[in-house]
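User: Before I run my own analysis I want an independent prediction to cross-check against. Here's the chain; please return only the structure tokens and, at the end, one sentence I can use as a sanity check.
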Amino acid sequence: MKKVIIIAMFMLLAAPAHRAWAQAQEVTSPVFTKPRPVTMAELGKMKTDGVSVAEVSDYVFGNYKGDFPSPPHADLNPKKAFIISWKDFKYRFVFSHEASYCPWFEMPSGAGVSYQFFEGNDGWAELFNQYGRMEKNSFVDVMEAGPKRVWVRWTYFGVNVTDGTPAFRGTEDFYAYPNGLILRRQSYETLIPGQRHGYAREPIELIALSPVGKMWYDVLEKDPATGESHALAVLDVFSDKRYDVYWKRRPHTFLDASFRRTGCSWADLQTSSGVVFVYPISDGSGFCVFGDASGYNHNYTNIKEFSFGAWGWVSRSWDHWPIGWLNSQGHVVDAESLKKYPNHFAPDGMDFFPLNDEEAERGVYYSLIGVGGDNLDAVRAVARKWLEKGQAAVSDADSGADLPAVFTPKHAAQ
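Assistant: Structure tokens:
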């Protein structure tokens, strides 16, 4: 009898606490809760006013159909991604866990343009390996979800391909606006001061992405008269100077190309106070703007075009990323891997090689990225308007918010 009374008294005492806990769960405001991940099918039905970001649970780039064993693929959920979408534009901006969260603009055609990250000196520490695909070494936080502005923070550790040793921590903030543009802020800190491998001096390298079974000659804008693919356009922000590169597939080869350059000299661009890199994908021209006023002073910013000089890889393509199918930082596409994996190529990039390591680490760097159409002069005009604001204004989180939209559908893609 005593046991029954004790149990009854315990239940009476516990009941109010249980009810209070349950009520607390029922009244928690949605403002103070994180949204649950959605599926890609659900994302396709969602609408946004302006711009928004959502976490998805089943994203896969480029029609990859294989498995995701971990390692070497990403740990936790390799299909996890954060996707920025716009009301007025069909392209999207994707942070994919499988791809080490290194983001890209993805066009409706499935091709993409990425901007890489701080790559460590000599390639000793970076993210395109099994350790860089781990959530503990690369992760994303949504700071603002829209609709007037999206703010995503990407934190990553440059890690060694052999044993995962972290060399430096990178922090990148992306501010996306309803006009389709994104301001990117980059900085990093070494984790092994005084050692060369603890530093990075290559913050940007544009990379184009092709879906499974497609290559550069399938996704780049093509001149119907010559059969050439338009691989690269570089614009001087403060003049009408322009440099273009065209590739044409060599007969009876897998991916080799001859190349042709037109326009101004590369030396003219090296001394410019502002440049625009453009990759003319068939249905959207992914671009990147930087210059003296955004922390990329031309005195120490070395721009490079990869079809000549010490680089000279022209149309060479790799498929170890964005699907991380091996613990490697380089695998050239072959006939068999093309059937299974997406691939990427890179006509140009930039570095801070004129700076010493400590100077590069102290910098905070800004670039403006987006997608244009056929009219690259409109992109140049927006780039100039942005850089002419000056250093203080450019470094403001809303420095790209008042700029006009530049995307218009390409004629070839209509």
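Sanity check: Helices lie at 2-27, 40-45, 216-219, 266-270, 335-338, 357-362, 376-387, 391-394.
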